[in-house]
Target: Putative ABC transport system permease protein
Amino acid sequence: MLVLAGQTLRSRKSAFVGSFVALVLGSAMLTAAVSVITSAGSIQLTGEDKEALDAVSSVIGFMAGLTAFLSVFIVASTFAFAVATRARELALLRMVGATPKQVRRLVRAEALLVGLLGAIVGCLLGLLLGTGLAGLLVLVGVAPDGFELQLSGATMYVALPVAFATGLIVTWFGAGSAARRASKLRPLTALRDVDVDTRVMTGKRWFMGLLFLGIGIAEIVILPSLDGDVQIPIVVFLAEPFVIAAVLLAPVFVGRLYSSFTRDTSATGMLAGANLRTGVRRTAATSAPVLLAVGICGSLLGVSLVMSAATDTSIRELYASDFVISGNVDTAVSAARQAPGVEGVSTIGDARVRTVAADGLWDQPVSATVVDPGTMQSALRLSDIAGSPDQLRGPAVMIGRSLAGSMGWELGGEYSMRLPDGASHQVRVVATYQDNALIQSMLVARDFVPAETTTVHVSAPDDPKQARDAVAKRLPGSQVTGTEDWLEPLIKEQSSGMQSGSWLLSGFALIYTLLAIANTTAMAFRSRRHEFTSLRFLGANAGQLRDMVRHESIALGLGGAVLGGVIAFGTSVAAWAALRTSVPDTPLVLPVLEVLMLTACCVGMMTAVSAVAVRKM
Model:
């Protein structure tokens, strides 16, 4: 069977080019992602550089998973086209005596050969892409200076085998549906000359589509009741089950939905609409990459916007002071206490520590807030406090419950913590308070951990402006800033880090899906060469043919973008509802501009490629 599959590939190269290109791109991006992860893990660094590389590994890990997810759909779509263009050929095999099992094995063997070649080429290309990705991470400030791809050790013995094996697995599963469909072709199909889809929705397709739709709805229902550290990863990938469901159930509604974007007032528009309604399998498969691009990328960007808004709200709600003094701490404290109308003065600092999990198996960096225990509540709003905050002195910590839960720390327990100078201490949890998964925090006393930077927070609820002006006169060399203004750089830093990660993931996915859109669109319109030739024989001129194709490509792009946009907006609202359980005042932010931008990219790519594909016929 492999020999016959090899002969088929040699004689029908054009039918498999799309599948080969899709697999090469997927394998290359996966190789690049995994090689960057292994390179980050093989470099021995400490301090902030180590934390930066840990963050790189997390972001690129998401990227690798997203690439594998997208690859399955895109490879499946291209193999479906490859089988559809060879329907008569496969039906002739059935006519001359081939069994359904033999046809299925033939398609599987073809997929295996394409997978082998595509995975090999993709892995080699991925090493070059990984070098560029490492440089990009340094350029945008995500990775530390000097970080580069390590072309030895784990990269060669882990990244390449993982990417190669994943490429073969993706091909095998991606071609599974096409192989089963090919085995069900009847011999009489070889005599058909009509391209009208009759029974597209099988029982299995209905079941799987409704199953994933149910999974997505169930996630939305249970999401608000989950702990914050469990919510975040689910929220990030909330769109995936809805995208799968939309792709599987698309043939039910794409014909009528997509044809509504064509102009029924013109003959070419009416014909384009009829093509979309009658060829629902082709319509759904061609627009699937657009649905993936807008649904996945739009959801990532939308969820990121909501999380940024929740983070912004959390930070603003944490600080209770009216203004902040930057400068000599002792002088600032003395001057603030003597100013009229001042009711509370407290010092707030920050320090990077590493906390060890309760089981001792792993640790993580934590931004600790260095406080003056006696006055900290005049500067910070700490809610639902349990334990004894007055015991916060020496080797003791007051920790947010979300952070404590993720580390396995409990009130009254003693755990290991490494200070900025590298010294390890056993610290006791003397109190806990309510925080959230977006702003996990810990309080330590000034007499235990030296702060990297310290500011003085002043509360003057009766007349903040008068008190601020009085302090500013007493401290001409210091900077006296309203708390809201002082928070802006901190909020911007938090938000930009989150947005950078989401744009990196979305950009990676968008590049892949745009290339997939170009690939699938070219395959879809080139496979209709016979149909277009018949239209020319019936009197249609080249301009009318191009007009019809333009109508179809715009409708396919807009239809896929509408479905993807619904998913992006829906998951953003679901993320907002879930995050409001811990941050009630979080504003709703929808990725309207982002979805419009993604739509323009997808429609533009599809229209341009379809025009080129038809012009070359």
